[in-house]
Amino acid sequence: MNWLNFGNMRKILLSVILCLLCCMIHAAEEVTVKVSGFVTDPNRRALELVNVFEQNTLRGAVTDADGYYEMTLPERDTLVLRYSCLSYQTAVRIVPVEGLRHIQLNLPLQAVSKTLQDVSVTAQRRQENTMQNIDASDIRLLPDPSGGTIEALLVTFAGVSSNNELSTQYSVRGGNYDENLVYVNGTEIYRPLLIRSGQQEGLSFVNPQLTSSVKFSAGGFDAQYGDKSASVLDIEYKRPKRFEGSLDISLLGANLFIGSASKDGRFTQIHGLRYKTNAYLLGTLETEGEYKPSYFDYQTFLTYKLTPKLELSLLGNFSQNTYQFTPESRTTETGTFDTKYTFKVYFDGMERDLFRTAFGALGLKYDVTDNVRLDFKVSAWHSDEHENYDITGQYWLSQAPIRNNEVDTTQANLIGVGTYHEHARNELSATVANVSHTGSWKAGENLVKWGVAYQREIIRDKMREWELLDSAGYNIPYSTTSIDFRQNLISRQELSTNRFTAFIQDTWKKRTTAGLITVTGGVRANYWSFNRQLLISPRASVGFIPAWEHDFTFRLSGGIYYQAPFYKEIRDTVVTNGVSRVVLNDRIKAPMSSQIVLGSDYHFIAWDRPFKLTAEAYYKHTDNLIPYVVDNVRIRYAGENKGFANTGGVDLKLFGEFVPGTDSWITFSWMSSKETIDGYTVPTPNEQRWNFSMFFRDYIPKFPKYSMTLRFVWADGLSFGPPSMDYRYQVHRMKPYRRVDIGASRVLVGGEDIKAKWLRWLDNVWISIDCFNLFGIDNTNSYYWVRDISNQEWAIPNYLTGRRLNLSISMDFK
């Protein structure tokens, strides 16, 4: 971190301030001209926070709540003024001065039309809190093995990381996957509970083709969002004004979207149908065999205005993931600089899994007045999960020395041989029903929000797992009198609980001579009948946009964030006569995280294009920790409270038009996350000490129909250790996760190209070719451990997918 020299940064900042002061003194001696006016939308309504500045300079102003701006500029023959605002087309006006001392210029801005080339994060909006807006309208151009998901875009954000391209789960600032909130139309979304690998996971709940707005916070979010401690992803689905649709077909599956509205606009509907199979990707794994994954998903969102103030809505989803796998053989090569290890396995048996979920939410929205809104909602989520496998493997582990950069096969020797058998018959049924009311009241400069909810949770869980290991003719664990299992788990649980939640928060916004101030404060309460614990979570944030010549924004947020336990966290294991049984710990407490986040944005113009530099520093202290280990994407909790954790770091993000007309960004994150358990301090399972990522868009200037998208991730490896040992030994590091995905697309038909009447229903058609894992890097996300009779263990890496090409055809129709 030698480049991060704060002393030099302070000198640079002081130099910049002195230069600005000199410029201001010089400007005072010059002849000036005053420019003022009003900026409105096409309906002549005032637009606030429109950036108005002189082209190729940093001189400018921002419109107030009435759309008014005023600034003083050095006199020139001609002024070139630039007007920009989120969701509106940037306008440029050339104004002749002709000796005038005051120029009044009123301007309407036109709404942005949808274009094929933009895949952008709407980061140019002034961010007054930790929630940032994401534009995922054209995420289909993203080279993503998961099939174009919002989560694949998120992992290029500062503070967000993932080390498994087969999974849509992600870690935020050292938190685990279960610590991330996801909302769709104000309803919290749940995931299946038995998923243990990215191969089983299938489709993300969020369908990007159905989204109209996406918001994301990496911490320090408001009290209106639920009781999880890492992040929140807030999705709103579309309400189309006319018929629209899209179709994507690739080697990984298909996605169909259709939306329409009635002539009077009272009824709207959208439907999304997705099918995915990643058998093509799984063919690059080192375990050879017959992969038969199949993932299906249907979603719909319907709205109907009963009256101008009363609206009824229905959100529905059904998904089914089936995963069938018949392994045949595996060969993995690993080692050190002077020794090569070869691990070979021949398999017998198969795995069959089924994950079926259904979700529905019925909502009623009533606009009492222009300032008061009431929402009532009833929702239910149900999941049926079945995991069945019987797999036998016979393995050989050999080693050979490396001399003069070549493997000396003449000196190879066998260091481990054995047979194992893995068996599972797991069934889980989960139902979550929720009744809620939320409301908002706009009173002058205050916006008050509140909510109350009751939730019923019903879990039925039946588990039967065992593993038998025979190493070099000896059963492990070794016994002279019996044959014992390496692992033997039996569980049958039924759980019915009630959960009550409530929140209230107030947002106060005031424009003063110093700048725009936004203050949000609130408190959240959560009571769970299982552990009889009441959680009180106060949260607050302050945003400040100073009335300076420069585009700076500052924000500070923090509070108490609880990780309210669900079913997985409360399962404790008790061993009796070599058999493990699951018991539910009703004395468990929710981990409590005290958080503070300090952030700032700096907007600037470079190469005549807008850019934004964002920096955030954060610190989290967690008590009542529930320790866990991560195996692929399955999280195994200890089922009891032990110790505490401390996490701190810095996130940096440079966003802007590196190429004119396209949005790209570069991020860097540094983090330290440690947990202390039984007096021992070790890295948390999701500590990635550094993370560098990039999302880049480009096109050929003379041939704009050709475009390129690149996603680059280089992140520190996760900590790991032998599963047979306790937390003190989880101190080893995986290799860094390095991956480059690149895609190229060509517009075949679009706009003026469509002349035939029978093709007028088409809006755009384009073809794309993607290269996943461009450099063919073998990334690791877990290990298989081989143990011999002397209890010596070797870690055999489980590599992720290799290089693959993907061809897709996409079209929009109207």
Structure description:
This protein is mainly beta. The strands form eight sheets. It has a 22-stranded antiparallel barrel. Strands 9-14-15-12-13 form a five-stranded mixed sheet, with no helix packed on it. Mean pLDDT is 85; it is low at 1-30 and 113-123.
Q: Could you outline the blueprint of secondary structure elements for this entry?
A:
Blueprint: H1 6-29, E1 32-40, E2 51-54, E3 60-62, E4 68-74, E5 78-85, E6 88-96, E7 102-104, E8 107-108, E9 132-134, H2 150-154, E10 160-161, E11 171-172, E12 180-184, E13 187-188, H3 198-201, E14 211-217, E15 231-237, E16 244-250, E17 253-261, E18 267-276, H4 279-282, E19 287-307, E20 310-335, E21 339-367, E22 372-403, E23 406-407, E24 413-443, E25 446-471, E26 474-476, E27 487-511, E28 515-528, E29 533-546, E30 551-562, E31 571-576, E32 579-584, E33 592-606, E34 609-623, E35 628-631, E36 634-637, E37 644-659, E38 662-677, E39 680-683, E40 690-700, E41 703-715, E42 719-720, E43 732-733, E44 737-750, E45 762-772, E46 780-787, E47 793-799, E48 804-813
Parallel strand pairs: 1-7, 1-8, 12-15, 27-32
Antiparallel strand pairs: 1-4, 2-3, 2-5, 5-6, 9-14, 10-11, 12-13, 14-15, 16-17, 16-48, 17-18, 18-19, 19-20, 20-21, 21-22, 22-23, 22-24, 24-25, 25-26, 25-27, 27-28, 28-29, 29-30, 30-33, 31-32, 33-34, 34-37, 35-36, 37-38, 38-39, 38-40, 40-41, 41-44, 42-43, 44-45, 45-48, 46-47
**Averaged pLDDT:** 85
Structural class: mainly beta
Instruction: Name the poorly predicted regions.
Output: 1-30, 113-123
What is the count of DSSP helices, taking H or I runs of 4+ residues?
4
Characterize the quaternary organization of these chains. single chain
Provide the β-strand percentage band: over 45%
Radius of gyration: 29 Å
Helix content: under 10%
How many runs of DSSP E, i.e. beta strands? 48
Largest sheet data: 22 strands, antiparallel, barrel
Query: Which term fits the overall shape?
Result: globular
**N-end to C-end Cα span:** 53 Å
